[in-house]
Specification:
With 261 residues, this protein is of the alpha/beta class. Helix content is 43%, strand content 14%. It has one domain (10-260): TIM Barrel (Alpha-Beta Barrel). It has helices at residues 22-36, 54-61, 87-92, 103-108, 113-125, 138-142, 146-159, 163-166, 187-204, 221-228, 245-259, and strands at residues 11-15, 44-48, 67-70, 97-100, 129-134, 170-173, 213-216, 235-238. Strands 1-2-3-4-5-6-7-8 form an eight-stranded parallel barrel, surrounded by six helices. Helix 1 (22-36) packs parallel to helix 2 (54-61) and helix 1 packs parallel to helix 11 (245-259). Bound molecules: 2-phosphoglycolic acid (PGA).
Length: 261
């Protein structure tokens, strides 16, 4: 039987999105081994790469203490689903995490809440940890709907899982207006929503109080420390800055410092 997550793991995950090539990736893996590895005793660290680079991630990060994963997964186990990649396939290349329900997938691939819940479930069945992304658009924030939107996204996933499965989840709060825009939520704005998410989780099952909730949206070395100082922010899902080894190292260092407090 798999173990439940430890108490609110500090976790920093890079989302490389559709960037890189074998040469650039190698430089990034080398930098991760060289500079980021030292923080792995206190912080769980991972990078989610494009599917074709999973074997390269496996070779490049083998025994480094840094994990790797994917940015999406099929909601199906196998079958006639042209173009899809299953969780078992990712698992064969040592993947540990999968990002599920990223706002770019919700927006550009019309992923529904139900499909996202199926993906999370399928990932869990294959032994992958789903990082479930939730977050409001600018319009929704301005209409004061943030808490409702986040609650509905979160509840659809929780509803499809057993209590035991829920204990394996990681959530990432990613306000859509802060992704790739350089516009970060202030630490206080992020904390408000993180606290809301934790309250929602606890209202479902008390044990879910210990799930890690990451913040994502223009996290950089320069703002990570203030974000990680907030009570309910357990780490980060990092897009753009995860491609820059100096930035990503700085974010992991900030998580390491926060873990020691
Ligand atoms: P960003 O992306 O850090 O470039 O804003 C975050 C994400 O999309 O996960």
């Amino acid at each position: 039987m798999k173990m439940a997550h430890a108490y609110r793991d500090k976790l920093v995950v890079g989302n490389w999105k559709m960037h890189g090539n074998t040469l650039e990736n190698q430089a990034r893996f080398d930098a991760l081994r060289g500079h980021v590895r030292r923080y792995t005793e206190t912080v769980k660290i991972a990078v989610c790469v494009p599917f074709p680079y999973l074997p390269q991630a496996e070779r490049g990060l083998h025994q480094s203490g840094i994990s790797w994963g994917t940015q999406d997964v099929s909601p199906h186990a196998h079958g006639a689903y042209t173009g899809e990649v299953s969780a078992d396939m990712a698992r064969e290349f040592g993947a540990r995490y999968v990002i599920v329900g990223h706002s770019e997938r919700r927006a550009y691939h019309s992923e529904s809440a139900t499909e996202i819940a199926m993906k999370a479930r399928r990932a869990l069945e294959s032994g992958l940890t789903p990082i479930v992304c939730v977050g409001e658009s600018l319009e929704e924030r301005e209409l004061d709907r943030t808490n409702d939107v986040v609650a509905s996204q979160l509840n659809t996933v929780l509803d499809s899982l057993s209590v035991y499965e829920r204990l394996q989840l990681v959530f990432a709060y990613e306000p859509v207006w802060a992704i790739g825009t350089g516009r970060t939520a202030s630490p206080a704005q992020a904390q408000d929503v993180h606290a809301h998410i934790r309250t929602l989780l606890v209202s479902r099952d008390r044990e879910l109080v210990n799930l890690s909730i990451l913040y994502g949206g223009s996290v950089k070395a320069g703002n990570a420390e203030n974000l990680f100082a907030e009570t309910d922010i357990d780490g980060a899902l990092v897009g753009g800055a995860s491609l820059d080894p100096v930035e990503f190292t700085g974010i992991c260092a900030a998580a390491h410092q926060a873990a020691q407090k």
